[in-house]
Fold:
Amino acid sequence: MKKLLIAALLTAVACSSTPREGTQICAHRGFWKCQDVPNWENSIASLKMAQDYGFWGSEFDVHLTADDIVVVHHDDDKDGLRIADNTYEALAATPLPNGEILPTIDSYLDQGAKSKCVLVLEFKPGETPERREKMVHICFDALNSRGLWSPDRVIFISFDLEICKLIAAEAPEFTNQFLSGNISPEGLNEMGINGLDYHYSVFYDHPEWVEEAHALGMNVNVWTVDSRQDMEYMAALGVDCITTNEPLLLKEVLESR
Ligand code: MG
Structure:
């Protein structure tokens, strides 16, 4: 316990990520289920819908193409083409199902800068240290050039522990959350990683990790929670944010508490 308290004090000094009031709503890959417009996950339309509906945050995924363009997309491939092995021109040759051109980090952040909705930027794993660093630095520059370089405007998440370590070293003031679910809050804290964003099943197994993380000054998010029952359980645990494909249902659940 003494070790935890000392670590919490150190973290409180080192970490200036914004504390949150209650559980917040993060739209997973944007509010892509909203059909007010032609929509698709990780499209600019899905981000705009998350912004227009006033959700706290909107999550999106990025990869690096073979010609060093950062694109917003979930899977490793698009239309059968592996993103890491293809140029942006080849990948963007066919539009998204909603008619949009494959977003780059630049076109996506142009929309992101238009509202206060927090951008939850997921770095997909990099294959080499060089490509990892290149992807992260391109995104850092793109955020900077749009006035988005602020812990209030963006948080970083990744399944790639090396990327989380890189962010901890280069942008320690930002919330930086590991996604894989296999490291305790104390273990992450010892690596300088100041947050966790785990699958909800992890918190059924380790409900104590929410309190442990908070004692260390860390932010806790949970993905991807789409049922009312799981939303109620996670909110009762006191997580800082719930990432969901059903943000309107989550809004209703949180408002009824
Ligand atoms: Mg993601």
Summary: Residues 59, 61, 122 surround magnesium ion (CB under 6 Å). Confidence is low (pLDDT under 50) at residues 1-19. The chain has eleven helices and eleven strands. The first helix runs from residue 2 to 14.
